[in-house]
Amino acid sequence: MKKNKLAMALAVIGIGAHASLSFADNSGELDRVEVTGSNIKRSIKQEKALPVTILRTEEMTKQGFTTVEQVVNSLSSNQSATVGASSVQSVSGGASYASLRALGSQYTLVLLDGRRVASQAISGIATDLNAIPLSAVERIEVLRDGASAIYGSDAIGGVINFITKKSYNGLTVGGEWLSTDQQGGNTGSVNLLGGVGDLSKDGWNVYGSLAYQKVQRITTMERSFAYKNLSADNLSGSVFPSNFIYKGKAYNPASPNCQPPYALPLDANACGEMSTLFMDLTPEVEQLTALAKGTKRIGDHEFSLQYMGARNVSTTRISPTPLSKIVTLLPGDKYYPTTLPDGTPTDGSPVVLNSRSVPLGPRTTKSTSDTQRLAFNAEGLLAGWDYRSGAVYSENKTTINYKDGYANETLIRQAFKDGTINPFGPSAPGAWDSVRLYGDGWIAKYSTALADFKASKELFSLPAGMLAAAFGAEVRHEKLDSQIQDTARNAIGSGIANSQSTSGQRNASALYAEAEIPVVKGLELQVASRFDHYNDFGNSFNPKVAFKYQPVSQVLFRGSASKGFRAPSLYDVFMPDSQTYTANKFNDPVRCPNGSPANGGNKAQDCNQQFMVQQGGSRSLSPEKASSLTFGIVIEPTKSITASADFWWTMIQNTIGVLDPGAIFADPAKYADRFVRNADGSLDYVKTPTENLGNLSAAGVDLSFAFRFPKSVYGDFGINLDGTYTSKYVQQLEKGGTYYSPLGGWYQDILSPTLRWKHSLAFSWARANWSAQLVQNYSSGYTDMNPNGENHNVKPYSNWNLSGTHIWNKKLTLTAGVKNLFDQEPPFSNQTKTFQFGYDPVLADPVGRAYFLKASYKL
């Protein structure tokens, strides 16, 4: 089948290192196809130009990627703020999210075979990438354009569509082992794929896949870059043996020796805990995924039923529970200190304990996230119209379990007070075990049920070609049920202590239409509109206009303008109120102004401390609105060269989020009403509710280049580059406020950095049954959060992945390779936003060099 060379290039342009596309499935029948970004089916000869990145799973796994998260994070257009490592410092349920353009995961719509998957129940604003089974995905299509008019009003930043295999016949067994140069981080996986029936011959097919993977955790002590730069600034005043506050000053009976390396002198009289040494850098993860699909063809119609299930178990370990101001001891209490460390007698004044539950060990949290999805699909030809209809039910249930190391607040207060536990040294056997807390703390469930119908057809002929149109409708019901268990209410330092259960639901419906209009030869318009109705936030009308202009066969121009609308998510509205410690350390603006104790404050309690913040949803939120523009050019000057540049701009109004504690502590006068204090004037917590913050505006350009060397006896060689340059990223912290920019570096300790440049560069070679690739994944450097001496900037981060593949008799496939070939460590960062120190766990991978072997055998 002949195709215009540039049309084919356009179908894969923007792919860069991920270039690979199959127009037809192995059923042998795909006369008309649907491509992400349009509801209109059309013949392959009429393939339209879209800013779509297409990733073939079989090619991505050759880099050693074993999860959907790793694949998505390799995209130059993606800058995720929540990755697997984020679960170490937050109550995220082990989730990982996509974030196109670094706009935020709530603006990237994740689809499975063109339809939604339920949001993760704990974090609640997006689909967890861990819910998608990589072994069952054939390809991933990423629409790098606002798609609110096509897929839903919340698809402001773009769409990632995971497309599973249409059918499969045979049985394939596979597995992979990844071994790291250093301790920790080893990964093993096995998978099974089998199916019977041939769609083209038998008219039916049934297949299923099953995969299991386990990833070892990496601890702080297993990577020197995570602890070698620790200093006295990293010490916490909550320590064991305990500090005690006497007449506004901190003392410790173990001072000055303390208990190194975990407890060190904080000053001449007190100790501090080096809590970072207890932390995991990455969690221990187990994943089990399953997918089954049955398909039947009857004449011009095709019916399928698909089930997907995924279980992701993430276990994290952080420092023992800080017990700040846990109890006040008075004369007569068993462990009331009668002398100071230098032997000076105390006069009977009250002393306040600043302790830590070190004898209980690190706080260990087990998060189990179960996603299930049942989808019915019907499509075919009806009265000359291509139609697609279906119904989907999906749900995510996430359970937060306190596995070990947590203390029961009520019991430990009493144990300190009555002397069951010695706060300054060893206690009687079983004393600490008597206050240990176990069990499920938070059980949340998010469900989505939807039904849709759409139809498309070429309606009539215009001088430049056929006008095609599509019409559709969708109804959707979403429900969130967040149940805080009694256990959590006594779990100090759990992140959800004192929380209350909440629930909420909504109905949404939509009508949409789309037309592709050939205006004149070489010029085609796409016009689309969508009307959404939310029972809780009203109506939204979102239009889109796009064009493709090809004046000559070697050059194509394209562009679009669209509107978007995002109603507050159920999680934004109904998130339970909870209290947790800040990752960053602050000075109490009243009791420790500018780092110096005053007004009854003391260094161990009020200076350079992790304070409590209270967060939660809000029912007074307003919807977000957005506008997007794109303009691109694609050229193919010769048969072997294809290049493109797509400029993009997005503005989001009324963004929904949480004001960072750093902004509140930076201007305590402005945010005085956010500080809640105890009766003695000490800081109890800071209020950080979900709210409308202001506007966000971002712009940049996606660049792609592909060069295919002439065929030779040595094989086929190619070079591909896929990069994104962000030229603008500004946002307001409050409505009508000043715009701040984290582009190219931290904005103080409030806004995390947006990278200016990110790319994937691939060198590929193939000959007969052999192939190899060398891929560089690069992220630009940026200004550090806390510039320290010469370490003002975080250096660029780059790693190279090398692999080779051989296929024997079209049955056995072996791939061997090295991830992070040159063993580049994460660049040093003096950020204090996460519990991990010395680098940024969101932007860099702590695994280091690792060797992997992947095998599959088709029986």
Q: What's the total number of strands? A: 44
| CATH level 3 topology | Maltoporin, Chain A
Question: How many domains in all?
Answer: 1
CATH architecture: Beta Barrel
Structural class: mainly beta
Beta-strand residue percentage: over 45%
Number of helices: 9
Major beta sheet summary = 22 strands, antiparallel, barrel
What this model shows, in words?
The chain is mainly beta and 859 residues long. It has a single domain (5-228, 280-322, 363-858), classed as Maltoporin, Chain A (Beta Barrel), CATH 2.40.170.20. The protein is 6% helix and 49% strand. It is built from nine helices and 44 strands. The strands form eight sheets. The chain has a 22-stranded antiparallel barrel. Strands 3-6-7-4-5 form a five-stranded mixed beta sheet. The model is unreliable at 1-31 (pLDDT under 50).
Core attributes:
Maltoporin, Chain A; 22-stranded antiparallel barrel; 44 strands; 6% helix; 49% strand; globular
A few lines on this structure:
By secondary structure, the chain is mainly beta.
Layout of strands and helices, then pairs:
Elements: H1 5-12, E1 32-33, E2 42-43, E3 52-56, H2 57-60, H3 68-73, E4 108-112, E5 115-116, E6 137-143, H4 148-151, E7 158-164, E8 170-180, E9 187-196, E10 204-215, E11 218-219, E12 243-246, E13 249-251, E14 263-265, E15 271-273, E16 280-282, E17 284-298, E18 301-318, E19 322-329, E20 351-356, E21 363-382, E22 385-407, H5 409-418, E23 436-462, E24 465-484, H6 486-489, E25 502-520, E26 523-534, E27 538-552, E28 555-566, H7 570-574, E29 578-581, H8 603-606, E30 612-615, E31 624-638, E32 641-658, H9 661-666, E33 675-677, E34 683-687, E35 690-708, E36 716-732, E37 739-740, E38 757-767, E39 770-779, E40 782-788, E41 791-794, E42 797-808, E43 812-819, E44 850-858
Parallel strand pairs: 4-7, 30-34
Antiparallel strand pairs: 1-2, 3-6, 4-5, 6-7, 8-9, 8-44, 9-10, 10-17, 11-16, 12-13, 12-20, 14-15, 17-18, 18-21, 19-20, 21-22, 22-23, 23-24, 24-25, 25-26, 26-27, 27-28, 28-31, 29-30, 31-32, 32-35, 33-34, 35-36, 36-37, 36-38, 38-39, 39-42, 40-41, 42-43, 43-44
